[in-house]
Amino acid sequence: MNSDWLYIAGAVALPNICGNRGYYIKNPEVKKWTSNLKWPRWAPRPIFPLTAIPLQSVAGYASYLIWKEGGGFNEDTLVPLGVYATGLSLNFLYTPITFGYRKLGLASVCMMAYTGVHAVATYLFWNLNKTAGKLMIPLNVILAFSTAVTVHLWKNNKERRIHDEDY
């Protein structure tokens, strides 16, 4: 039982590490850049930091359930956990693409891909463990919302794209 806690902690920590937001959120240059963007009025900006860690953590726990119920990494869990890991990779890339390189078009593509991959992972998790699938749904919602915001930022900040060489 004690080792289960280590696996759970790792599964919960991994998606938050992949989000790698810390440097960018605290960077004053990034704060200045994001504050100058034309944000959609329908998107409350505080929602992202308030939801990212809890929802990523819940999805991480869902991955633990798949791993645990499937008996580890094997032929039954390889595809669902592989698709989930692909989503984590896209999550890892999104933050530096957006806030480091300021490539809003590429960030939009990355976020669309992450949203789609996470939806597929949700479906695959659901087929193995309904609880795990249900735990993935809230992150699907915020990813869809984040995709809409990212695309809006890309489409409505053309002068920023030219200034920042974001093509």
What's a concise summary of this model?
This protein is mostly helical and 167 residues long. The chain has helices at residues 2-18, 22-26, 28-35, 47-69, 78-100, 104-128, 130-155, 158-163.
Write the layout of secondary structure elements.
Layout: H1 2-18, H2 22-26, H3 28-35, H4 47-69, H5 78-100, H6 104-128, H7 130-155, H8 158-163
Helix pairs in contact: 1-4, 1-5, 4-7, 5-6, 6-7
Explain what the structure shows.
With 167 residues, the protein is mainly alpha-helical. The chain has one domain (2-163): Up-down Bundle (Ferritin), CATH 1.20.1260.100. Helices cover 80% and strands 0% of the residues. The longest helix is centred in the C-terminal third of the chain and has 26 residues, at 130-155. It is elongated and about 50 Å long.
